[in-house]
Amino acid sequence: xxxxxxxxxxxxxxxxxxxxxxxxxxxxxxxxxxxxxxxxxxxxxxxxxxxxxxxxxxxxxxxxxxxxxxxxxxxxxxxxxxxxxxxxxxxxxxxxxxxxxxxxxxx
Length: 107
Hints:
alpha+beta, 4-stranded antiparallel beta sheet, 25% strand
């Protein structure tokens, strides 16, 4: 990692270039332990050649509801198991429940 940059105008989003990849993430999406950096990024962009693009085209898939369901479920579980104030977690989980209920009623 050559340099770590901060987008202040976007709430302190961090980004760095590693080789051909630009990785964008928030501070809470990284952990450092035993000389190893783990990032669960918001975005990863990799500069690729035309040949690489042709190969990747064979594996691309459209986004489906089941993928978003899986991501949402993971995020909710992560919130539930977060070691933070139980009242705050309960508040946000109830708020999500209400918002989901409202969305279901709209469809």
